Amino acid sequence: MKIGFIGTGMMGLPMAKRLLNANYQLVVYNRTKSKAEELLNKGALWANNPKEVAEQSEVVISMISDTGVLKEISISNDGVIKGLSTIHIDMSTVSPEMTLQLYYQYKKHQKNFMHSPVLGSVQNVIEGSLLIFVGGDKEVYEKCEHIFRSLGKKIYFFEDIKKAGYLKLLANQFIATMIISLSQGFIIADKAGISIDTVLDVLSESTLNSAMYQIKGRSIKEGNYTPRFMTKHLLKDINLIIDAACNLNVELPIMKKVQDLFEEAIKKGLAEEDYSSIYKILKKV
Question: How far is it, in rounded angstroms, from Cα 77 to Cα 97?
Fold first, then answer.
């Protein structure tokens, strides 16, 4: 099968590489072509815009930065919908409302749109152990299931396309609040003269533990904020979470404070550091 892949950033690149390694043919597009060079060197074909990707592919996958970019690559004059034969799968974290709008717009053109955001890191992509939340028509999902199986270890399917987006957003809500909790714990420990190693060991020996606490805790201890998930991207997701909660008539008072802290982090120049750099804001470093 020939797959189109749009968006070869931090997560998109290893996802596309995994599909190449699974013997899918790829046609790729990214706004910055240099970020796709590794794929091109491995045999992927280049397209000049999303429409050209779609024209050359049986299925198109997109993994892009935000809702606005998704709308642009989908329904602009050079968008996927103009050249698509059958199926567009977006795997980004974007507005559930926008995915529903695109679902119906594609239907009007006798084409199919699915929203399938993923939960996991680059390492999970490499291992093929992502969690994938698939929203859309069941018969379309069944045609693409082999692609999802190449990327993830478990798939959660919903015929209501918005549920896939809501599930991803609530998962990222856990990420945002957990890193705040971990950072605050480290600050208290520091003031009390307790080492980060001791805190992480206590976590590891208790039901409080998580892989995220251990990975981010060690990075904070080392002062290593090389991005695995950028601060600016988590703030984007926090904004989406708050908007989604509003649509569901749910109050999220804690997330408003979390939003303020991440906005401060952006203002302090931490946008492209790992989101664990929120520790610096809480510690006032």
Answer: 22
Quick one: pLDDT at residue 209?
97
Superfamily of domain 2-159: NAD(P)-binding Rossmann-like Domain (3.40.50.720)
11 phi/psi in degrees, rounded to 5: -95, -35
CA–CA separation, 83 and 70 (whole Å): 16
pLDDT at 284: 86
Cβ 51 vs Cβ 74: under 8 Å: no
Who contacts 225 (Cβ-Cβ below 8 Å, separation ≥6)? Answer: 219, 270, 273, 274, 276, 277, 280
CA 120, 135, 232, 67 torsion-angle sign: positive
Q: How far apart are CA 210 and CA 220, in angstroms?
A: 15
Kindly tell me if the per-residue pLDDT of 285 is higher than 70.
no
Lookup: tokens for 35: 């970020």
Residue 111 token pair: 């084409």
Residue type for position 23: N
Is the pLDDT confidence value at 70 over 70?
yes
pLDDT of residue 29: 98
- Could you tell me which CATH number the domain at 166-283 has? 1.10.1040.10
For 202-229, what is each residue's pLDDT tens digit?
A: 999 999 999 999 999 999 999 999 999 9
Task: Quickly count: other Cβ atoms within 10 Å of residue 82's Cβ.
Answer: 17
274: which strand partners?
230
The structural domains of the chain, with segments of one domain joined by +, span 2-159, 166-283
pLDDT for position 231: 98
Question: Which DSSP symbol is given to 274?
Answer: B
Residue 230 is encoded by which pair of tokens?
Answer: 């950028």
